[in-house]
Amino acid sequence: MVQLYNLHPFGSQRVVPCKQEPAQFCCGNDVLFVASAAASCRVEVFAVRCEGRCEPLGSFATLGPVLRMAHSRAGQCRPLLGTRGRSSTGRVRVASASAVPGAAARPGQVLQPLGILVGSSVPTPTGLCPCAGAQSIKDEDLAAHSLQLELDEFVICQKPVELLGEESKLCKIPITLESTELSTEDKKHFQVQYLLFRRFTPDQSPFGFCEETKLHSVQFLPVYQTGRCTCVGVTDMILVFAPGLIQVFIFFLHQCFFFLSSESLQCFTVRCSAAAARDEDPYIDTTVKACPPVTLDVCTLRMQLFIGPRAICHYKNHIILLTKADTEDITERRKPSRRMLSRKADSNKSRTNSESEPGWNLYIINTVSTIQLYREMVDYSRTYENVRTESCIHLLSEAHLLVRAAIMDPSFFKSDEKEELLRAFKESCAFLGDCYSRFDTKDYHLALPYYRMSGLSVTEVLERLASERDEIHTYERGFIFYLTHSLNEELNEELSKELADKVLQIFYLADPVQLPHIICSPCMKNVCPLTAVKYLRKVEDIMPSVVLTLTKAFMALKMGDLTMYECEMNSHKETMLACGFIGQPKLLRECKEGTVIPTEFAVHLKVMQPGLLVAATVALHENSKIELEEADMFFKILCNNGEDTVPQLLVDFWEALLVACSQEEVLQELLLRVTYQYVWRISKKQLPETKPLKTTEDLINSCDHFGFIFPWVTFIMSMESPLDKDCPEDISKLQSILCGQSIDITAALPILEPLAEAGNVGLTIRVLCSTRLGKYEESLDQLLGQCPAAAVLYAQHELKGDSQAVWWNKLLPELCERARLTRSDCPVLISSLKETLSVVAMELELRDFLSLLPEDGTAAFFLPHLLHCSQRKLLR
After folding, report:
1. Whole-structure pTM over 0.85, yes or no?
2. CA-to-CA dists, residue 556 to 487, 537, 599, angstroms
3. Domain's final residue, options 528, 557, 572
4. CA distances from 416 to 51, 81, 102 (A)
5. Composition bias, kind Basic and acidic residues: at what positions (predicted)?
């Protein structure tokens, strides 16, 4: 449906002082060419000045009547199509007249034709298309053009059609790229893209229904250009049919097209900027940005009445209109003219023209600037605010698209109106935000992106809307939607106490379940805690929740009421409270300029309930409410530690997260982090600043990543060493991790390097790493060298299955050799050798076992022991 708004896109009109009756005209390079009617065979030339003023420059004769005129940008030429004689069989001529720059033009100067082409006996051409030079127009081209006009003279549309995007190709109207024969032209860089096809039918137009519909002529400026691309071809294909149709002329000044009927000049809106905006940005329709839809109803901005309109053309911000009144219309012209509806009529109408030829006029009608038309559309929209809200939104959307089109134009950055257009764009976004906030519409969610695009702060939006609803206490969905999203985001904006309390009232009336989340917003820091608790208690009677309890506790802290705080916190178990923070993470942390900052609540928990704080942070991480790096910064700021130092509370968080986490990548990262921290504190003999929340035993019992410490490790650590007395808890936790099977030992080796020579601790770590890498012989060498008493314990724990052969291939020969060298001075070696022989004798056949014994007579010493082992094997 076409909606009519009585706006004024036509600012003023002036009469062109033609001496002869006009028949054809065209404009370009600030020069207007007017071809006289058939009897005159003359072309008058005028300079077009500001506000449509015309100054005569001169004239030149033609060899015959001019049938068509057109302007070509390339070379600034005007091809003229005419005949040599007055008869219908006259020869067709095409001439090209050179352009006269406006600054150099002199009144009375005569323009001469540059060249003449004479057509042969072909069908009489009826149209003309300018290109790089008039010489490129050929006879066969003119004949084909004439034939196409005859074939397409009548078009009948059965029903309205609108096709968007790729579907617009289904209109079956081909678009081809025409050569301009410019030296810089490169067709490889051009492509055709269909954006929109729209077709009207007679019963959908404002001109009534007719059975025979004839399209007289359609003209297009086929380029809509943006900063990123140039869309070549017809962006909006609009065909309008009516019995009195004279001409449809489409161009994209103000993203409008102009329609000339038998009695009026009309201005319609089109959706070019909406289509181009979506073509440039496919994600334009989000919560961050928006654009009115391409499918908006067509809008008529003006129906300007004229008597006898015949032809129209457009140049810059001018519309050139030819009117010729029939004899019966002359009398009507003496009555009050309906043409006075224009904003300003020219009082300097040519007296000579009106006296000699009262039946015709050639007008230059000025269109108003984008900003002026935008302002009028905004003012006009206010008349619909309380009666037809959809019309108000529609008109404001048209105004927004008007400004958007101007901003998308490549000439925008050089425009004198650049700053004013940007302000108008933001203002139009604010107006649309107001509409979707105030009115009950299905697209209420658009309040959020339009307010965001407007650049208005939450405070400014509240000041625009909240005060006007004080008396009625009702708030539309769009307003609540905007407030909910804005206040739940990490905004660096603090509302005043008055506005924060007003927000409490708004949500208590409109959406009370949101109150805990709204109160926790960084924007609500100045809210009155007592007022907040009053509203929360009212909501709790209807919808109790853990989040609501935590929010009340938070407000109690703000008031300094520790009794109320403890009462609230004791109403739920600690595990429930930890999970409650998942529902509202802002109770613990807020974000300022990309940094996670602890709240007053978190500071209090750090001192009074650090376990709950760590458990809550783990719950936030496991529910994707806080990233690992954010948690690191959170605890460092909370504990006032520098970025290079790690507080114990952060280590507690890592250890607790190891218990809960199941993501392999995160697990490895955490294992390496705690390992590094243990190694750093052991090597620096640095005790944690606070008591760890979990002991080694707690961690071993709660997750598999911390393993039971092996007996041989415990045996080694039982031997006195001055290096092993510091940081016992860190040492045992480090050994427990290495006794587990989770850590990537290869990645951990560089981290463990500082402890390589750290006494018994270093020995256990080296042997644990070698063992994890399958280097059992290397491990035995280290033990035999530094703690031989632990060798058998090690072998008993580690040398099993595939590694069992190390008993007799490595350990037994090594012990025999060391016992022989030390004789009887080392009882530990003798004892270890006996234990080894016991194992070997039980596992090997007697012949194989005897072959392993040394041949220097030492074996006789072990014969009683060997006999005992053999008997045990037989019994087994």
Report:
1. no
2. 22, 13, 14
3. 572
4. 17, 39, 22
5. 343-354
Q: Is residue 528 situated within a structural domain? A: yes
Q: Which two tokens stand for residue 457?
A: 């702060």
Q: Which residues contact 253 (CB under 8 A, 6 or more apart)?
A: 314, 316, 317, 367
Domain final residue pick, 506, 541, 572: 572
Residue 323's DSSP bridge partners are 309, 361
Same domain, 467 and 550: yes
3-class DSSP state of 224: strand
pLDDT in tens, 212-251: 444 444 444 434 444 444 443 333 334 344 444 555 554 5
User: 521 with 472, same domain?
Assistant: yes
Residue owning tokens 């008039």: 134
Q: Is 199 helix (H, G, I), strand (E, B) or coil?
A: strand
Backbone angle region of 727, left / alpha / beta, with phi > 0 → left and psi within -120 to 50 → alpha: left
The answer to whether residues 232 and 224 touch, using CB atoms and an 8 Å cutoff, is no
**Domain residues for 82?**
16-151
Q: Are 43 and 142 within one domain?
A: yes
Contact 461, 429 (CB under 8 A): no
CA distance 445 to 289: 11
Into how many domains does the chain fold? 4
Sign of CA dihedral 570, 573, 574, 576: negative
Together in a domain, 420 and 545: no
CA atoms 689, 692, 695, 699: torsion sign: negative
CA distances, 172 to each of 194, 197, 275, 295, 442 (Å): 11, 10, 20, 20, 35
Geometric angle at alpha carbon 392, from 459 and 402, rounded to 5°: 85
Helix (H/G/I), strand (E/B), else coil: 691: coil
Q: Cβ(40)–Cβ(146) under 8 Å?
A: no
d(CA 604, CA 560): 11
3-state class percentages of the chain: helix first, strand second, coil last, to nearest 5: 50, 15, 35
Predicted confidence (pLDDT) per residue in 347-365, tens digit? 444 444 444 445 899 999 9
Neighbours of 664 (CB within 10 A): 9
Q: Is 402 domain-assigned? A: yes
Structure tokens at 369: 């600037």
Question: Is the predicted pLDDT of residue 874 greater than 70, yes or no?
Answer: no
Please answer whether residues 51 and 70 qualify as being in contact, where contact means their C-beta atoms are separated by less than 8 angstroms. no
Site of tokens 């709240």: 599
d(CA 841, CA 870): 7
State how beta strands 196-199 and 161-164 pair: antiparallel
Amino acid residing at 453: M
How many CB atoms lie under 10 A from the CB of residue 54?
Answer: 22
- Sign of CA pseudo-dihedral 514, 517, 519, 524: negative
Q: Which two tokens stand for residue 90?
A: 């006259």
Would residue 498 count as lying in a domain? yes
